[in-house]
Amino acid sequence: MNEALPEQGVPAGQVLDEIRALRAGDRPTHGGRLFAYVYDPAVPGLDELAASAHALSAHVNGLDPTAFPSLLAMENALVGAAAKLLGGGPGTTAPDVVGSVTSGGTESLILAVKAARDARPDIERPRIVVPVSGHAAFAKAAHYLGIALDLVPVDPSTLRPAPEAVAAAIGPDTVLVVASAPSYAHGVVDPVEAIAAAAAAAGVRCHVDACFGGWTLPWLRRLGEPVPAFDFSVPGVTSISVDLHKYAYAPKGVSVLLHRDAALRAPQYFAYADWPGYGMINPVITSTRSGGPIAAAYATLRHIGDDGYLELVGRTRDAVRALADAVRGVDGLELMAEPESTVVCFTSTDPGLDLFVLVDELTARGWHTQPQLSYAELPASVHLTVTASVAPRVAEFGPDLHDAVAAARAAGPVALPDDLLALAGALPPDALTPELVAGLAAGLGLGSGTGGGPLPDRAATVNRLLDAAPVRLREKLLVEFVSLLQRPSY
Q1: Both 64 and 204 in a single domain?
Q2: CATH at residue 79
Q3: Looking at residue 447, what is its pLDDT?
Q4: Of 129, 155, 402, 451, which is most buried with the most CB atoms under 10 A?
């Protein structure tokens, strides 16, 4: 790795060549073989359009909308588009929807929790009710904002929370109840109508997290899919988040947080005037905001249009169906749920077929999937986020999946040493020192990955260790493993 601050400046072309060389080691962001992290519609010219729009507004600062009205206009247009798509705006039962553009789903969720907390200053120890399938960003929000998290289990068969269990979890200190549409891990839509009704009966806000695939649900309904009610058409839904840098296919990072009306949004703001500088007023967490992502999202939505999204969602739905059929065609694999949105998630029913080894075998064949660890009664699984770019490659996936399964069976399950398994089951998280983790990482083949070096090609052993560890120890291991990777280059 070259120094970021050399003694003498480096020519622009050389710098770009260096970045291209670094990027060569990344997962492929285009081509329909990466089932996580990025969203590719395979629309010709869209990348160039978004990059040009980003460049036009990259140096515009969203801190003061009166100084840069272009950014305010584009932000309001994005909010209006999201509101209209999700059951709000003129002529609906939620005509007064307002919103803000954020940097991503996590910021949207943190702000939804903040608004709910700050709307109830009378509650000394606020709490939020979240199904265990709710995104981890809610736990992050609770941690950052000093809020207690009341988790509701999901049914192992339906992967949804029972509405009566959600209602029972609501107490006098609850400030927010959460539902997902759809959930990230398994792609199923929670029973939003019943959850929102329970929240409304208790006088509590209800947030629908539609960050992941919520942008696709209205078009799926138009294509004839049985999408349940989940948006502002549902009484009791007070806020919704939806990411534009996912299935709206805008570049990172743009999300929209919507509230049913301005009074509900008001506690989201932060204002401060008790200092000699400028009057600070922030609708979101950041103060300075580049206009680049907002302009890129505006350009993306304008270019694709309603008809374009309908076509992209149709292609994605067809790809989901074909991938699910490929999974059904393999003995020993089972879908965690029948696909409802843009996710195919499957598990292994064969003790001789280690999912983590299968993930490595798929990677070796050019398919980059996302392993999910076991949790409570839910087994480990493999998650596929399906985008429109996957459709042309679907026919290749089935044969490669069969080959990968055969190779995984031949290799056999990962076998951790008995002493390591015993350690994972008994070690208190606080006893996990950086030195211990460094030795453990070296033994697992991660030693070469410290300090920004090359990472190992296979991760089945690491995933098996994480899967064997209790949740709190798992969290500590994740922190320490990543800490080993994030070291300065000198």
Answers
A1: yes
A2: 3.40.640.10
A3: 57
A4: 129
In the predicted structure, residue 250 carries a pLDDT above the cut 90: yes
Mean pLDDT of 220-236: 97
Residue found by looking up tokens 């709490």 in the block: 127
**Mean of the pLDDT values across residues 207-236?**
97
Domain that holds residue 125: 55-299
Same domain, yes or no: 380 and 469: no
CB atoms within 10 A of CB 469: 22
* Tokens 């291991």 found at: 477
- pTM exceeding the 0.85 threshold for the entire prediction: yes
What's the pLDDT at 445? 67
Q: In what order do the strands lie in the sheet with 239-243?
A: 98-102, 255-259, 239-243, 205-209, 174-180, 127-131, 148-152
Q: Which amino acid is at 12?
A: A
Non-local (6+) Cβ contacts of 231 within 8 A are 86, 87, 88, 181, 208, 210, 214, 217, 218, 237, 240
171 and 286, same structural domain?
yes
- With helix as H, strand as E and coil as C, how does 379-410 read? CCEEEEECCHHHHHHHHHHHHHHHHHHHHHHH
Q: How many CA atoms lie within 13 A of 490 on its CB side?
A: 1
Q: What is the mean pLDDT of residues 321-330?
A: 97
Q: In the block, which residue shows the tokens 């992941």?
A: 212
Specify whether 144 is located in the same domain as 273: yes
Quick one: which of 135, 96, 92 has its CA closest to 113?
A: 135
CB 111 within 8 A of CB 117: no
Tell me how far apart the alpha carbons of residues 137 and 265 are, in angstroms, rounded to a whole number.
19
> Looking at residues 267-284, what average pLDDT do you find?
95
Phi-psi bin for 441: left (phi > 0), alpha (psi -120 to 50), beta? alpha
Predicted local confidence at residue 420, as pLDDT: 79
Q: What is the spatial distance between Cα 196 and Cα 181, in angstroms, rounded to a whole number?
A: 13
